[in-house]
Amino acid sequence: MHALSVHGLTKRFPGVLALDSVDFGVAPGEVHALIGENGAGKSTLIKVLTGVHGPDEGEVRYGGERVEFATPLAAQRAGISTIYQEVNLVPLMSVARNLHLGREPRSRLGLIDFSRMHREATETLREYGVRADVRRPLGELGVGAQQMVALARAVSVEARVVIMDEPTSSLEPREVETLFGVIRRLREQGVAVVYVSHRLDELYAVCDAVTVLRDGRRVHTGPLAELERLRLVSLMLGREIGEVRAEGTTKFGGEHAAAAVEPVLRAEGLSVPHQLHGVSFEVRPGEVVGLGGLLGSGRTETVKAVSGALALSEGRVTVAGAPLRSGSPPAAIRAGVSLLPEDRKTEGIVPGLSVRENIALAVLPRLSRGGLVSEARIDALVETFMKRLRIKASSPRQKAGELSGGNQQKVLLARWLATEPKVLLLDEPTRGIDVGAKAEVQKLIDELADNGLGVLLISSDLEELIEGSDRVVVLRDGAVVGELSGDEVTEDRLMEAIAAAAEDPAGAESPADAESPADAESPADAEADPPAHAGADVPGDAGADVPGDAAQDGPRDGAPDTPQDAAPGTPRSAAQGTPPGSAPRTSQKSGQEPSARAAEEAPHG
Ligand SMILES: Nc1ncnc2c1ncn2[C@@H]1O[C@H](COP(=O)(O)OP(=O)(O)OP(=O)(O)O)[C@@H](O)[C@H]1O
Ligand SMILES: [Mg+2]
């Protein structure tokens, strides 16, 4: 019998049939993959299972009984623990508090026993490979470490069902292994697990069964091991295996003819105290240069230094022969440097604006002549990108905040690709994007490279880094420790280079080093979220007895800010910073500035 199931489930949003009489169930001790293209309905299904949305038709059964959870908190209390697509903890609260939210250990007087809470939190997190100071605000941790906290929290609750919506999108390979260990333990304990991911390798590594959704309909359910990978992709995309194979699904074209001319980007001796130590490399027009290394190796800092978000103490960046003023994102943008930031949730989508406006934000200066913007040109550009990236929206006028998680990512990607930059800095460009669209993104990047663009690529997906890069510069502790090019760019060689780095005892072995300072999201980011966010928007994440309650018990359906997945709520700060009518320059800046502030104020290093 299923631990949790839905029967004939239908869910509509204005203009969209998100789920169309879907049957789905997960048994105790089973790890069930739920897959489908961006916008197929995965997150919506999870939200109906967990009481974020009510069903329009059909029913949910839990332990065989018909249920209708009024709120995610009710589902959580009944034993259904969920990690939603976006980490939705409270960035300003301490790591320990986030972990224990609503279940804080108390003294006999009923006061929170902080020392015990800190001790327990430290121990729990160590099992997950996170060695952070648990008294610091959660927002200071990197995205991956935050995801591990969400995981630890979900699992530490006595749960009969654990649901994970893209839990690995921000995790490093090592963290993914930890996660898999946790999932296997849950399976042994007879917990039912629902697992959503776009990384097919992971599904095969950890899942027993699979259900494929396509356009809101269930198109396949069965054991996973028996299903060949290409067949799985063709089920997802609704195309024949031959077509899928011909398209080559997930790889960059590789091999760009890098012209033997002046590099488009030159980094010379980039240094920032405690973070970067004399990092030098070049990117020639037409080249994709990957940055390899572990968390905390300095990849994100390198990209931030190039984008002006991090001021240099020494060294310089040159774009197309002209030196860049250090520490100035606007100067970098003017010089033709575009950054697709890692943390798109706080640095990206403006949920209240239309898809069209979100895409056009950064290109308005180019499309306007004498202050007049040609609407027709914008329409044409938006249409091109929506088509190429297969952005699923009811129309270009739909609010970006209503799109599925992956489709929001595509909108951001479109925004930066459309600027036709000279240098494109991509921090995890295909995170959360389905295999079909990933192929499109990679093709687009290839084309841009062939037209002379220089690309600097960071990806925790090793395969993507290897397939995508003409050269890989390997970093450790903020310094370049190796470079692979041509035939050397293989998984083995890269693993070797990274492992050599990890073996050094002073190096990344100490996760404390690795987790906290490097990719720290910084208090600046945290502050950018209005504190109200904690209450009003932190929606369903695990039974927040404290601040989440208001949201969880609040109106659920149709409320614009309900679910966690979509950007709703989150980038409100961005929305405020970027009113529709604001000057395009400013708009573009707002995409990058938070990281600038983050960089300046964060206790990096
Ligand atoms: N609050 C909402 N308002 C309007 N439409 C919505 C809302 N939430 C989801 N949708 C629509 O429902 C459909 C399914 O979205 P859902 O988020 O379930 O997709 P998904 O399979 O999780 O995709 P992804 O892989 O991108 O996360 C999409 O067309 C989406 O635009
Ligand atoms: Mg989703």
Could you give the topology of this structure?
Elements: E1 4-13, E2 16-26, E3 31-35, H1 42-49, E4 57-62, E5 65-67, H2 72-77, E6 80-83, H3 95-100, H4 114-127, H5 143-156, E7 161-165, H6 173-188, E8 192-196, H7 200-206, E9 209-214, E10 217-223, H8 229-237, H9 241-247, E11 265-272, E12 276-283, E13 288-292, H10 299-306, E14 314-319, E15 322-323, H11 329-334, E16 337-340, H12 344-347, H13 355-360, H14 364-367, E17 368-369, E18 372-373, H15 375-388, H16 405-417, E19 423-427, H17 435-450, E20 454-458, H18 462-468, E21 471-476, E22 479-485, H19 491-503, H20 511-515, H21 522-528, H22 532-537, H23 549-553, H24 572-577, H25 584-601
Parallel strand pairs: 3-8, 3-9, 6-7, 7-8, 13-20, 13-21, 16-19, 19-20
Antiparallel strand pairs: 1-2, 1-4, 4-5, 9-10, 11-12, 11-14, 14-15, 17-18, 21-22
- Total discrete domains: 2
Please report which band the strand proportion falls in: under 5%, 5-15%, 15-25%, 25-35%, 35-45% or over 45%.
15-25%
Rounded to the nearest angstrom, the distance between the terminal CA atoms is: 52 Å
Radius of gyration: 23 Å
The CATH superfamily name of the largest domain is P-loop containing nucleotide triphosphate hydrolases
In one word, what is the shape? globular
The spatial strand order of the largest sheet comes to 6-7-8-3-9-10
CATH second-level architecture of the largest domain:
3-Layer(aba) Sandwich
Biased composition (Acidic residues): 516-528
Protein name: Sugar ABC transporter ATP-binding protein
Biased composition (Polar residues): 584-593
Keywords: ATP-binding, Nucleotide-binding, Repeat, Transport
